[in-house]
Design goal:
77% helix
């Protein structure tokens, strides 16, 4: 699991930088009242459980690939929530970029593991 923490830290820092550079609005998904809040809280709980299960359940090197795939899926689902519930903030654009980057990292990990 030496590879995963630097990748996760790098993605978190890049997410923070892209939020600061690209987004004009400071509106966040957890600030939304009404319909959007409840599904997002459920998504966060399920995501946290899935990440912990993946970290415990999968061993190296194949666990790296599955963990990276999970991170990619989490960015993709989050971008759908952001596009649906806060479309004016354009936060989904950053999430799409992060999902694409996470997908590239997943493919590179798969190539490195399986080849």
């Amino acid at each position: 699991m030496i590879v995963i923490p630097p990748i996760v830290v790098a993605l978190a820092v890049l997410q923070w930088l892209l939020d600061r550079i690209l987004l004009q609005s400071k509106e966040k998904l957890w600030d939304v009242d009404g319909d959007g809040f409840k599904p997002y809280v459920g998504f966060m709980i399920v995501s946290a459980v899935a990440v912990i299960a993946f970290l415990i359940g999968f061993s190296a090197p194949h666990g790296y690939f599955w963990f990276a795939g999970l991170i990619t899926a989490l960015f993709a689902v989050r971008s759908v929530f952001e596009r649906k519930y806060i479309p004016g903030a354009h936060a989904h654009i950053v999430s799409y970029w992060m999902g694409g980057l996470a997908f590239v990292v997943t493919v590179l990990l798969a190539i490195g593991i399986y080849v």
